[in-house]
Amino acid sequence: MNNTDEKIKRTGKVYLVGAGPGDPGLITLRGKYLLERAEVVVYDYLASKKLLRHVPDTAKLIYAGKKGGGLHAFTQQEINGLLVEHARAGKMVVRLKGGDPFIFGRGAEEIEELVQASIPFEVVPGVTSATAAATYAGIPITHRGYTASVAFVTGHEDPTKKESNIAWDKLATGAGTIVVYMGIKNLPIITAKLIEHGRDPQTPVAVVRWASTPQQHSVEGTLETITEVVRESGIKPPALVIVGEVVKLRNTIDWFEKRPLFGKQVVVTRTREQASELVSLLEENGADCLEYSTIHIEPVEDTGAVDAALGEIDTYDWLLFTSINAVTWFFKRLFELKMDARDLRCRIAVVGRTTADELQRYGIRADLLPEKFTGEGLAEALIQEGVQGARILLPRALKAREVLPQRLTAAGAEVQVAPVYRNVPPQGRKEELREQLQSGMIDLITFTSSSTVRNFLTMVDARDQEELHRLMDGVTIAAIGPITARTVTDAGLKVDIQPERYTISDMVQAIVNHYREGGAG
Ligand code: SAH
């Protein structure tokens, strides 16, 4: 092994990655790939925290936040030092920077330091906040009918100082669209400069704060009025100033802030395994989801009952599924026993549409779907079919309501309950949830089963009813169906939203309708 090889082996690498403007969906595939393999992540104030989801649990996370003009968690010098230090220790380091690393991001300064220290590096571009802010505010940054040029400038430096790097005189009329980064503090001077150098005072201007995030806030004015508009609306950094005729198109194109749940903070209480469908539907509609996996699903330790039933599966007349989890874990065990769907020759009934859809993924169409998607509804539908003397297998959670097996047994069926999974209450994050409730930032909480309600209450850990009511004051509650709603009311809380059909998509639709109709909370 020669010297160079040894060096490469011992030295890590630094990846300077553009995080995009805020929406965690706007990172590149390359950026996500690197985050998934990072050993150390040094991230910025402007990089979306949600991107840290991609990082392995074992990675070291370092917040190197630098807020414009305010607190510096680290100086630029210290950040450069951190990158060098961890790379020297042989680590794969991702330096995650808001927007694009080379657009007003001091990315080059960090690279120069790496070069000096002979540390290998790579740079991954990102969606810069200027294009994102324009797009998410409904402004096409260029347009054949309006402008063929766009300029990105920093408003950070004082435009009145003599040695300014920006030729405001040429810029004022030289570029069709002008986007100013870090321009809020100097906005009065910037607009005055542009007007002084010949730009029409009536030129439309938009200012967009926290672009592409659920906190996005945008306002509109002209070069003459925008300073006042910004002052009145209380807009603070980080924000971008977009100057040009294209701003006029916003009236037609604005889409992001028009989504029905835009700006709503929603607590999603679901099992981690199942949260994704609910979260993506809510996010599609503009909500900001705070995920709390209130329960965690695990297979049962004792598979004796299900194994025995599968051993004589041909003797059963019916197989019942009352949840997606039951389907998932039943099939998992079936496959582990080297069996497959062809072994299930009995008739199959499911409690509701979502469970039916899950079953379909295994190539099986349910024979029976009740009109009412509850255990009671399913019992009723089966009894109508005639269950006298029928052998029924019910794979389900270790702890579950007994009403379904009880009713069927009472109607003369022989029911075999076979636990296939269990709900495990979560650990941690209690404090975070309580703080969010206390600060009044939560608009809505969704409950998709009674156990999510119970586990939520355990997490909130209110001293008494009074404290619970104080924490939940102003929070809207959505429950997926009547059983879940009962658990909510039993706890002394009120259900505001409940869909007619007990599915995730119906619940999201009911939430959307609630806010469309101007629901408070
Ligand atoms: N490298 C970044 C810019 C860093 S400079 C990029 O490519 O976007 C920091 C400035 O960027 C902020 O002061 C603000 O003007 C702008 N900015 C960054 N993210 C923003 C966002 N989500 N919304 C509005 N402005 C943003």
From TrEMBL:
Instruction: Tell me a GO biological process for this protein.
Output: cobalamin biosynthetic process
- The species is Desulfolithobacter dissulfuricans
Domain Tetrapyrrole methylase residue range list: 13-226
* Designated name of the protein: uroporphyrinogen-III C-methyltransferase
Domain Tetrapyrrole biosynthesis uroporphyrinogen III synthase per the UniProt entry, residue ranges = 277-509
Example of a GO MF term: uroporphyrinogen-III synthase activity
Keyword Ion transport assigned: no
Q: Cross-referenced NCBIfam families, in alphabetical order?
A: cobA_cysG_Cterm, PRK06136.1
Query: Which PANTHER family does the protein's record reference?
Result: S-ADENOSYL-L-METHIONINE-DEPENDENT UROPORPHYRINOGEN III METHYLTRANSFERASE, CHLOROPLASTIC, SIROHEME SYNTHASE-RELATED
User: For this protein, what is the EC number?
Assistant: 2.1.1.107
Q: Keyword set for this entry?
A: Cobalamin biosynthesis, Methyltransferase, Porphyrin biosynthesis, S-adenosyl-L-methionine, Transferase
